[in-house]
């Protein structure tokens, strides 16, 4: 949130049960680790932070060279070994979770990456951007939409569901 923290809520009671601090700017995105015992946050401070729910603490920080551009979206690979961060400088940084090192940079967008989603079967890394495109970096497919703010997909990975600046929900089909 805008308080630089990530809060964990009990959905039954509506109460905040844990607060994780560490960021120096707004938290823009969050994603659970595949096992569910940790989560990653993306922030305007340019970092991705990994938090352990059981230990109630930060366990890793993934920091790119420049903090001029923040991180807007984050997701894990199917195994949890890779961590993807979508940044305002139009690129995706791929991090090795265990080594805490960047292993790749993915290019292709012409404006900030606002959303990022890896498919449940691990075969696609999809992004939405303010450049009005959706990209699947595994297949190379590109779809044209409004400025994308949020992105998700069903388990079949035949479609992407987006919400954007046009105030509409769009279902975009991708070929397998």
> For the report, how would you describe the main beta sheet?
4 strands, antiparallel
Structural class: mainly beta
- Strand percentage lies at over 45%
Mean of pLDDT: 80
Through-space gap between termini = 36 Å
Spell out the helices and strands N to C: EEEEEEEEEEEEEEEEE
Tally of separate helices: 0
Determine the CATH superfamily of the largest domain: YVTN repeat-like/Quinoprotein amine dehydrogenase
CATH class bucket of the largest domain: Mainly Beta
Task: Report Rg.
Answer: 16 Å
CATH architecture classification of the largest domain: 7 Propeller
Order of strands, main sheet, comes to: 3-4-5-6
pLDDT under 50 segments (min length 5)? none
Protein name: Guanine nucleotide binding protein (G protein) beta 5
Organism: Clonorchis sinensis (Chinese liver fluke)
Pfam family, one: WD40_Gbeta
Task: Kindly describe this structure.
InterPro entries: G-protein_beta_1-5, WD40/YVTN_repeat-like_dom_sf, WD40_repeat_dom_sf, WD40_rpt. The protein is mostly beta strands. The protein has two domains: 1-107, 7 Propeller (Methylamine Dehydrogenase, Chain H); 124-176, no CATH class. It contains no helices and 17 strands. The strands form five sheets. A four-stranded antiparallel sheet has the order 3-4-5-6, with no helix packed on it. Strands 7-8-9-10 form a four-stranded antiparallel sheet, with no helix packed on it. The chain has a four-stranded antiparallel sheet with strand order 11-12-13-14, with no helix packed on it. The mean pLDDT is 80.
């Amino acid at each position: 949130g805008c308080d630089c923290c990530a809060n964990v809520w009990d959905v039954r009671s509506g109460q905040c049960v844990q607060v994780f601090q560490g960021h120096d700017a707004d938290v823009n995105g969050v994603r659970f680790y595949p096992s569910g015992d940790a989560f990653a946050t993306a922030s305007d401070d340019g970092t991705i932070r990994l938090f352990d729910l059981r230990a109630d603490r930060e366990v890793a920080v993934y920091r790119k060279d420049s903090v001029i551009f923040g991180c807007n979206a984050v997701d894990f690979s199917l195994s949890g070994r890779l961590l993807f961060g979508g940044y305002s400088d139009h690129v995706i940084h791929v991090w090795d979770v265990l080594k805490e090192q960047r292993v790749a940079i993915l290019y292709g967008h012409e404006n900030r990456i606002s959303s990022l989603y890896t498919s449940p079967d691990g075969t696609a890394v999809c992004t939405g951007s303010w450049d009005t495109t959706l990209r699947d970096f595994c297949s190379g497919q590109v779809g044209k939409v409004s400025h994308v703010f949020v992105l998700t997909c069903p388990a079949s990975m035949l479609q992407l569901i987006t919400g954007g600046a046009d105030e509409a929900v769009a279902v975009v089909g991708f070929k397998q």
